[in-house]
Each structure stands twice: as C-alpha cells, then as structure tokens.
Amino acid sequence: MVPGAIFALAFDGEGRAAGCGAYRPLGEGVAEVKRMFAAPGSRGIGAALLAFLEARAAADGYRELWLETRLVNERAVRFYEKHGYLRIPNFGKYAGRPEAVCLAKRLARRPPSH
C-alpha cells in the first residue's frame, strides 16, 4: 500500500461490484485520480465514487485532484467537467501527448475532524 493513496469499490444493490476509483499522491497537496470505472447502466455510481474520492482526499489533506483521460473519450471529459474539473496543461508522462487531456479540481477545505 502506498501512503496517501486509496482504492475504492462501489457495489450495486445486489452486492455486485459496479465501479471503482482510486487516487495516489502526485505532489505536495496534489493527488492523481486513477482507475475510475463504472459499469454500464450503473446510474450514479461514477458520480458517487468521485464525490467519495474528493471528500476523502480533502480529509487526507490534499488541496487538488488531477487526472488524465483520453481526448477521444468525450463522455469522460464531459463527466469530469460537469463535476467541476478544468483542463490543465498535460503533466508528467502525459506532457506532449496530444491524445491525452488532463484536468484538475481544487478541493473544498474541510475542517479537521475530532
């Protein structure tokens, strides 16, 4: 396990895996969203997973989430933009790769839990 990383599974009403998502540390105050997937027809699973990851990342002290998806995956790009992610210059191994699009979202500050 990587410190500062998390992997989440979502299940449907019948106990079957319906989606997953993760984040890993990327830099000071920044985590990268990885492995986002929701099964076809699983309405709301992707949004619920993303909201969970955002809340958990904020609680873990991250200020931003960054991610990469393929430019041709217009559905994913629209999904992230709908949830407040903005395009940023391609980072890391995605720099200079025209098939990739990178997005980021500033996380809401969370009060410390007691």
Structural overview:
The chain is of the alpha+beta class and 114 residues long. It contains 2 helices and 6 strands, in the order βββαβαββ. The protein has helices at 45-59, 74-82; strands at residues 6-11, 17-27, 30-38, 64-70, 86-88, 100-106. The chain has a 6-stranded mixed β-sheet, with helices on one face. A hairpin with a 2-residue loop joins strand 2 and strand 3. It is globular, with a radius of gyration of 14 Å. It starts with 5 loop residues before the first strand and ends in an 8-residue tail after the last strand. The mean pLDDT is 92.
What is the strand and helix layout of this fold?
Elements: E1 6-11, E2 17-27, E3 30-38, H1 45-59, E4 64-70, H2 74-82, E5 86-88, E6 100-106
Parallel strand pairs: 3-4
Antiparallel strand pairs: 1-2, 2-3, 4-6, 5-6
Averaged pLDDT, please? 92
What is the first-to-last residue Cα distance?
25 Å
Number of contiguous helices: 2
Q: What about the largest sheet?
A: 6 strands, mixed
Annotation keywords:
globular; 2 helices; 6 strands; 6-stranded mixed beta sheet; 114 residues; alpha+beta
Concise account of the structure shown:
This protein is α+β, with helices and mostly antiparallel strands.
